[in-house]
Amino acid sequence: MARIVMKFGGTSMAGTERIRRVANIVRKQAARGHEVAVVVSAMAGETDRLVNFCREANALYDPAEYDVVVASGEQVTSGLLALTLQSLGCKARSWLGWQLPVRTVESHSKARVETIDSPALIEALEAGEIAVIPGFQGVSELNRITTMGRGGSDTSAVAVAAAIKADRCDIYTDVDGVYTTDPRIVAKAKKQKAVTYEEMLELASVGAKVLQTRSVGLAMKEGVRVQVLSSFVGEDAIPADEYPGTMIVSEEEMNELVEKGDMERQHVTGIAHDKNEAKVILTRVPDKPGAVAHIFEPLAAASINVDMIIQNVGRDKGETDVTFTVPQADLARAQALLEDKREDIGYNRLITDSKIAKISVVGVGMKSHAGVASTMFSALADRGINIQAITTSEIKVSVLIDEDETELAVRVLHTAYGLDAADEAA
Ligand code: ADP
Ligand code: ASP
Ligand code: MG
């Protein structure tokens, strides 16, 4: 018998019929004698719908009120799943964020979990009751509703797993594991038996939305065993206990898998894309100490994450152009802040472009293998894809390109690194 957290994403929860399918998967796990806590997302599309309402109500919305609106999607699905489980004869109840409570920092719309009060939850689990917890939501020190950023239910699930010392956290989604790239874009993408925490963290942070970045960081820190697997399976599916999905593992575990011949050592583990960033260009910024700080300080104070930054070589008159990217969702706020600080910064024009995409290749093998970046640049150049910006880390290379070329770029790179599924058979 084990204690298991099962998380179901939006597509799995989209409608009462799918919730019934989920309830059956949960019931089966509980019937094996496991203690089961379930974390659910809102129905697919629901959070987007709620976000749009907020934008329509007030383009520069107050994040605290935004949280009140968007947290509601998960309240609906958690209640519906508890009801459906009860209809199947299971003992089940919902536990809303404020009821557990899931305490988070005050930072609205991107809150971080601080503590989860687990004694009552553990007591219910030990009494054989299935706990259904809405993902994504928590409560701040000031007793206001918070949410944990898009895709945040993954983090809720991992945080619950850490709090109740679960044996495993199974993330059920609409694909059957972590692939070499988004299988919806590249049909030849390959499912991985295992991916290291470090690689998954990097892949998630550059747009492989199968797991929220924070959930991977938290799992790594707390040593939570995470499996990604599909909820769209038939009656004869391999049980989750036998690991049909992708396990997120430590480097030591990965080395063991490679030694046993269960995994191949690869230079590139995956390719990810992100269309959710926007480019901001400030022209003719004074080329002097402190100028760049003037740009980024107000953005940091407003918790706006700046990603790629390029400062061009100074022009003749002691001026330079500064280009950077921010999440599209924060663009309106970033623009308003920068316009406000125009005098202080002293730039000439503020130009924005949301039609961009970031393409990244990730792999721990890069640490010891040269040439990954140059393969990327030549493969893109061969297809006439222009690179607007580049960033690198120890295990990642990212480029910024025109959004229209996203799919082509991902496919071309997948082939260039020999990741296509057909290559194996050849
Ligand atoms: P959920 O609603 O279950 O949280 P998400 O839509 O957040 O699901 O994440 C699952 C999706 O992630 C898949 O449908 C797939 O299109 C996408 N995805 C992106 N990169 C990958 C990858 N490397 N492996 C698997 N899925 C990926
Ligand atoms: N419903 C939220 C979202 O769409 C959280 C989640 O699904 O993980 O971002
Ligand atoms: Mg998700």
From TrEMBL:
Pfam families: AA_kinase, ACT, ACT_9
CDD domains: AAK_AKii-LysC-BS (cd04261), ACT_AKii-LysC-BS-like_1 (cd04913), ACT_AKii-LysC-BS-like_2 (cd04936)
Any one GO molecular function term: ATP binding
Enzyme Commission numbers on file: 2.7.2.4
InterPro entries: AceGlu_kinase-like_sf, ACT-like_dom_sf, ACT_Aspartokinase, ACT_dom, AKii-LysC-BS, Asp/Glu/Uridylate_kinase, Asp_kin_monofn, Asp_kinase
Residues bound to substrate: T47, E74
Coiled-coil parts of chain: none
Cellular component aspect of the GO annotation: cytosol
ACT domain: residues covered: 280-352, 361-426
Residues annotated as transmembrane: none
Record's keyword terms, sorted: Amino-acid biosynthesis, ATP-binding, Kinase, Lysine biosynthesis, Nucleotide-binding, Transferase
GO biological process annotation, one example: threonine biosynthetic process
Binding site for ATP: K7, F8, G9, G10, T173, D174, Y179, R184, K209, V210
Enzymatic reactions: L-aspartate + ATP = 4-phospho-L-aspartate + ADP
Keyword presence, Kinase: yes
Pathway given in the UniProt record: Amino-acid biosynthesis; L-methionine biosynthesis via de novo pathway; L-homoserine from L-aspartate: step 1/3; Amino-acid biosynthesis; L-lysine biosynthesis via DAP pathway; (S)-tetrahydrodipicolinate from L-aspartate: step 1/4; Amino-acid biosynthesis; L-threonine biosynthesis; L-threonine from L-aspartate: step 1/5
Family: Belongs to the aspartokinase family.
Protein name in UniProt: Aspartokinase
Organism name: Erythrobacter aureus
